[in-house]
């Protein structure tokens, strides 16, 4: 290959021009519409973060409830916790869920769980525990918003809460304190399961939304060329 | 069930109602659909209570386990489906309550309760009320432990005033405000009620409002008109009601200590003049106030710092001098100590030194030396001077310190003594010399002698004759020299005494550098002249000389045996005079190895044990040998030199080249034998037949006629032979000879050759000279011929061929070897005067000729 000095200068000028106009390339411009991919990734990351955060919070809270609730093999019946949204689902059913339904279930579950969690916060007797719960509630609120964002990006409407089904935390007079503690236990357990499931959901969604590698093309709209 | 009214407004004790009638309940019916129920639900009890827990279940009790906080508990079966557990003296565990639960071993049915154990409500402690302004009462108390649970809020506090009948629910756990009514109620009876779900506790106080006034902290405390010794303090207080008077306490602190305290009654503004203050001093003023009508409590303190103004220094500086001669001029170094804070009364800015000549009127010399310099140097003449020193601050000068210097530096010799150091310092005492002393001064240097002197001094009164000199700078093992001066009425200082001492004497730190000299076979001398006793860490009392003799040898007489620290035996001699710095080690064995070591000692001990120095004493006779051998060698050398210089003379005297025949030993030998008539032939007695004259210049080198050429560069003149009398016609022999007839010679010789020349052709090599050339043959021939001449040949018959002894000197030159033996010149070679066979007489004058001469001598000796 015969390169002359004039050719080298020309190539250098060309390279500089490309670098100069690189921010103008839409495919590389992060301010452009990236689609639901980054939102799903963020939501996935948030679920992993909350999973980690909840592990610490649940340990503190169950110690606050006392034995047997803080024992590792304690598995009481779901007596008063039937109203809590269940995270466990048949594997086949879970696989067959479409994106909208999957996202809707996540959204609805966290809406309910957040509401119950706020009730838990009001019951907490120690200031430190209240601070931890409040911080976790804020994070969970962020996850809810993130899911809503993904749904909006995919063009799915947010589920409307049915009138009269708004979850409340009003322990009735017949609801004993022991049962209340069991509800608290199940709330934290269900929350943990939901966060684990959401990580799976969003991971699946992320893979699904990711375009095949071969289809990735770089559209150069080099203005000025 | 029974009931009782519980209200603070109703005086106690209250009365309980009668018990209600019993109600029955069926446990089985209450169970409903639940497999297991535990009672009582969410029970709230106080710590220390006994609680009975029971469960109702249709399942057999053997399949049910119950736990208290995770620990299994065992109860009592009341009937088929009901079991009870007695929990005694329960204690508080957590605010969310104590968990008690039962579970069915198979099936997973679970039932439980939370038992809320509250801490016992305590009676409020230290309940008191006070007012700052007669408008609001503040009541405070110690609430004790919190009894709050998730089932029970923390205890509440209610303040109830019985005279007014008012009460207020306190918002805080430990204090509560009460608004004083406008109707000027003076007496208050407060009841504080603490209450939770389980208990009420109350405490009451009765007081008069004006007796509980705790004024607020005064404010705006400032100094005003601050002088050197006084200052006015002003402050303000919050008014309490109308025309109320407050008693305020003003305290003055210096260096953290209260030095003045004043009480001032004020309404709103306070003011007080503080006096007797020190100039240029920092003070702290602080004020607190109390209600005058009835003292209850002092208010909080308010403090303010201030500094008094400066004043002129109140005392003259303490001045001392040191005199020395510099380049022939008396030079005075003046030193002064800084004034103490008490006397400086401010920051000293400079010192004035005024020099006044006392001997002749002259102008005053004024020196201004800026602080903090504490010394100056003055060069004076031989006159007397009065020196005034004053310290100045911003206000003015101090009184003057006066010192008089005489022109004489005062190097008077005085008594030197020693002073003992103690823990407190040096106790120095002296004898007063004159009665008019106005004081004494002791001066010394704070540092060691080898460092520059930091001059210190101490002024003492006229009646003092001793003092203790103490200084933090004094160190053990350092020699301090004290000089005691007497101050006369004319303010002149005279040296009284000198003292030297150690705070604590130490053992010498180094040993003398010993020089060994005068080594003999029995003694040697040690000296350490350079060892300074002054610079040692103690007074040197003497020296120890250690000597290690060779093994098994006794110590010399002046030494005693001692054991060294390393357990080796040694000889020791003690010198108790510190000025004796030489020592002769005597009575030693000759040619023996000794080791010595010298150390100084003080009252504490001796110096460090250094290495011993080895020395070997001399051989006993070596000095004698030296005395004899050296002169002998010298003499021999002298003789050799003389011999060398006079060797020519000696040669002539002892072994001349031409020996004197009269001195020949051969002659005496012959004489003593048989022929007493034999004598030395005198040349005067000889009638010459022919005379050969040889013209030979002096200094010519040897030449050989056969070569016909000079061997050297020296000009050679061929000898001219004049044949005065020819001995034989047709003689073809090369060399002419002088022939003498002598009866002592063998006649046969003349028969053989007319002129005694050996008939050898010039061409014949030396080895062809015949058998006589060999020494043996020569010796034989000689012997034979000699015997013949002595015994057989009659005298007078012999026809001798005499060879002249006046041989040419050339024949003696050994440097040139003959190549042509039958040269006439060779005939001049000296031969012994004896009978020689003809063949021998003409023997070639080679080196064999000299050999024959030697042989003859040997033969002569043989005959003796």
Integer-rounded radius of gyration of chain B: 72 Å
The tally of helices of chain B reads 9
Mean pLDDT of chain A: 76
The CA-CA distance between the termini of chain B, in Å, is 181 Å
What gap, in angstroms, lies between the N and C termini of chain A? 26 Å
Radius of gyration of chain A: 25 Å
| Beta-strand residue percentage of chain A | under 5%
Helix content of chain A: 55-70%
Principal-axis shape of chain B equals elongated
Helical/strand content category of chain B:
mainly beta
- The structure class of chain A reads mainly alpha
Beta-strand content bin of chain B? 25-35%
Series of secondary-structure elements of chain A, N-terminal to C-terminal: HHHHHH
**Tell me about the biggest sheet of chain A?**
none
What is the tally of helical segments of chain A? 6
Order of strands in the sheet with most strands of chain B: 2-9-8-4-5
Quaternary state of this entry equals heterodimer
Average pLDDT of chain B: 77
Most extensive protein-chain contact, per-chain counts: A-B, 17 and 26 residues
Topology:
The complex is a heterodimer of chains A (225) and B (864).
Chain A (H helix, E strand, L loop, with lengths): L4 H16 L16 H29 L25 H6 L2 H25 L3 H28 L22 H33 L16
Helix pairs in contact in A: 2-5, 2-6, 4-5, 4-6
Chain B lengths: L26 H5 L4 E4 L4 E3 L4 E7 L6 E5 L2 E3 L2 E2 L4 E6 L10 E7 L5 E9 L6 E7 L4 E7 L13 E6 L4 E4 L5 E5 L7 E9 L4 E9 L10 E6 L6 E6 L9 E9 L2 E10 L2 E6 L7 E10 L10 E6 L11 E8 L2 E8 L4 H4 L5 E8 L7 E6 L4 E5 L5 E8 L8 E5 L9 E6 L5 E4 L9 E7 L9 E6 L5 E4 L9 E9 L5 E10 L12 E3 L6 E4 L14 E7 L11 E4 L5 E7 L6 E4 L7 E9 L11 E4 L5 H24 L1 H8 L10 H8 L19 E3 L26 E3 L24 H5 L22 H17 L46 H4 L5 H17 L1
Parallel strand pairs in B: 2-9, 31-37
Antiparallel strand pairs in B: 1-3, 3-7, 4-5, 4-8, 6-7, 8-9, 10-11, 11-14, 12-13, 12-15, 15-16, 17-18, 18-21, 19-20, 19-22, 22-23, 24-25, 25-28, 26-27, 26-29, 29-30, 32-35, 33-34, 33-36, 36-37, 38-39, 39-43, 40-42, 40-44, 41-42, 44-45, 46-47
Helix pairs in contact in B: 7-9
Family (chain B): Belongs to the type I cytokine receptor family. Type 2 subfamily.
InterPro entries (chain B): FN3_dom, FN3_sf, Hematopoietin_rcpt_Gp130_CS, Ig-like_fold, LIF-R-like_Ig-like, Type1_Cytokine_Rcpt_Type2
Protein name (chain B): Oncostatin-M-specific receptor subunit beta isoform X3
